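QA checklist item 7 of 12: single-chain prediction sanity check.
[x] sequence parsed
[x] length recorded as 539
[x] structure emitted
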Amino acid sequence: MNKRNFWSKVNHIFGYHFYAFIAAYFIWSLINIIGDFGDELNVGGQVLNISALILEAAAFLIAIYFAIQLIDGVLRVGEVPYDLNALSGKTKISVIVPIHNVQPQVLKETLEGFTKQTYSNYEVWVADDSTNLELKEACKNLAEEHNAIYYFEENDQFKAHMLNLVIPKTKGELIAFFDVDHIPDPNILSKFVALMEQYPEYAFVQSKFGFRNVSNFLHVWEAMSLTQQFCSENARRIIGTVLYSGSTACFRREYAYPIPEGKMTEDFDHSVNLIMEGKKGYFLDEIGSMSLVPETMAHQLSQLFRWFTGQSGIMYDYTGKLIKHTFKRKLKFRQSIDIVFSSLLVVAATSFYFLGIFYAIIYMLKIPLVRAYMLGQWWLIIILSLTFVIYFATISATTFYTMKSATFPLKIWYVPFFLLFGSLTAPFFLIPAFRGLIGKHNMIPGKTQWNKKIPIYRYGVIFNVIGIFFLYLTVDSILQQLCATILLGSCTLYTVPYENFFFTLFAVIGFTLGFILPFLAISMKVFKPKIYDEEHIYH
C-alpha cells in the first residue's frame, strides 16, 4: 500500500467513527423522543423534535462526507499516469466554444490560446447565438482570423441546445468543450488525447482550470470555492463519479451528445446520466485553462443561484432513477450516495438556518429539547463544536490543496476573507436550494434567463430583519439562563426551566444574518467590473 492509499484509509477510518457517532446519536435521540410522549412532549413537540433531529443528522452526514472527500482530494487518490510521447497523432479532436453576446477581446484571447496548441490534429468551432449584431460580426471576424469555424444560428433555448446543434457537424472522434473566457493551456489537447487513447474506459476527461483575474477578496472567495470543487473531484475518481464542469473537458464522441436541455446545470445532468449508464470520467488535476471569475458580487450571486438551483434539482429529477438503478445493481451504492450528497451539498451548507428556525419555534413554545440520554440542551454545544471540527478539516484541506494546485496565487491571510464571504453569502443559497428541491430548476425558452439579476438588497433587508430577531432571541435566552440559575426560573415570557444553551446557536445565526446588509452594500460599491461588460452578463 502506497502512502496516498494508507493516509486515505486513515482518513476513512476517522470518517466511519464520525458516521457511527451520528448514527448512534440519531437512533438514541429518536427512541427518547418517541418514548417521552405524554411526559413532557405532546404530538407537536415530538414532530418538531424529530424534524430538527433529521435535519441535524442529515446535514452532519453530508458535511462529514464532504470533509473526508476533500482530504482524499488533497491526497490525489486515483491518479493515473499518461505518456505524451505515445500519442498516435491520428485522433482528431473537435473543440467547441459557445458564445452569446461576448466581448470580442475575451474571445480573441481564447482563440489565440488554441493557435498555440502542441497537438495539431484538431479543429475549433465558435458556436454563436448572439443577438447583438455588432458583437456577432466582430466575433465572426475573429474566428476567421484564427482559423476557427464560425457557426451562427438563432437560439432561444440556451447553451445546451447550441452545443447539440453543433456537435453533429463536427468531425472529431473526441469533442472538447471550452467556455469563451477559458484560455487553454498549450498542452491541454495533447493531454486530453493521451488520456483518451491510453485509457479507453473513460467516457470523458475533466480538467481543472486556473483563475487569471484574482485581484481582490471577492475573487479569492470565488476562486477558492471552485478550487474546493476540484479538490473533491480528485476523490471522485476512485468512486467513478467524476462530474463534468461545463468547460475544459473532453468527451468521446458517442458520450458527448446529446447534452441535456432545459436544465440550469446541463453539465451536472449529463454527468449523472453517464454515471447511471455505467460510464465514468477522469479528473485531470492539472491546469487545462485559465478562466475569469465574476468581477462583481451581483454577477457571482447570479451565477451561483443558477448552479445551486440546478444542483439541488438533480434530486427532484433523478431520485427515483437512482433508487431503481441501485436496487438493480446498475449503480454502486457508494455512487448513488455520492450523487445524492453532491446534489444536496448546498442544502447541507444552508441547513444551519433551517435548523435555527426549528430551534426558535421549540424555544418560543417552551418545548423541551429531547435528545440522546444525558445530552439534551448540551447537544447545542456539541453541534457548534462538531461544526467547528468539520469546517476546520474542510477549510484546511481546501487551503492546502489551493496552495499546491496553482489555480491562483493564494496567501494564507486570504483564508479568513474566504470564510467571511462564504458565511455572509450562505443565507442567499437557501432560496435556490429550496427551488431546486421543489422542481423549479428548468430553463423555459422565452421566460427563464440564463443568469438573472438577483434582488440582492431586498433579500439583504429580509435577512437582516431575521438576524435582528435571532439576536433578540440570543439576549432573551441568555437572560433566561441567568434567571434559571440565579432566580430559580421566575423570569419573563419564554422561561425555560432547565439548562438553556439556545443562545449559542441563536448568536451565530443572528450575527451572520445581522451583518449581511452592510456587507452587501460595501461589496456592491467596492467591487466593480474591469473586464466584463456588465450589460451582457444577464441574458
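[x] summary fact logged: The chain is about 55% helix and 10% strand.
[ ] second reviewer sign-off
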